[in-house]
Design a protein that fits this description.
alpha+beta; two-stranded antiparallel sheet; 5 helices; 43% helix
Length: 181
């Protein structure tokens, strides 16, 4: 059975996902989609476990769990057959032909990332995340985004306050004019 994992941080790579989710069972396959143009992760993946009990454990323990500041969405996934991408000049191959071309474990070859089992980093503990360079980089990018959002919010709030002040001044002047008359 396959598991859908959504709302993953784009800082994670295949190896990180393997390290985190292999604690509930042997992973048979990992589908980790990336953007065709940029190569960045799309923020979700599909994991196939060897045993159905691992699937149940994963869903029970990881649904709505926080990983790198994001709440994961984990649920059952029933695979469906996707139509092949149409590439001009390419011959259409069946799924079986493509599977025979891929070697076992090819998806996990040369998988590296800042988080792995050997470094002893606990991805769920915010205090240990502060020690890693990747976490510092992630926090800096997040803070920059927060600063930009905060700046826009302050700007909007200031504009609204000015508009409100103008309305009050206009009402006050109108009332003064009526009192004088």
């Amino acid at each position: 059975m396959q598991v859908f994992v959504g709302n993953l941080s784009i800082d994670l790579v295949e190896g990180d996902v393997l390290c985190v989710f292999s604690q509930f069972g042997e992973i048979d396959d990992l589908i980790f989609p990336r953007d065709d143009k940029t190569g960045k992760p799309k923020g979700f993946c599909f994991i196939k476990f060897e045993d159905w009990r691992s699937t149940v454990l994963t869903i029970d323990n990881f649904n709505n769990a926080e990983l790198l500041g994001r709440n994961l969405k984990v649920d059952h996934h029933r695979p469906t057959e996707r139509p092949a991408k149409k590439v001009p000049g390419a011959s259409a191959k069946s799924v079986e032909d493509r599977l025979q071309e891929v070697q076992a474990g090819a998806a996990f070859k040369d998988v590296q990332g800042p988080y792995n089992l050997f470094s002893g980093v606990n991805l769920f503990d915010k205090s240990t995340n502060s020690d890693t360079a990747a976490s510092a980089d992630w926090r800096a990018r997040r803070d920059d985004a927060d600063d930009a959002e905060g700046h826009e919010k302050k700007k909007k709030k200031k504009k609204e306050e000015k508009a409100e002040k103008r309305k009050k001044d206009k009402k006050r002047r109108k009332k003064e004019d009526q009192d004088e008359a």
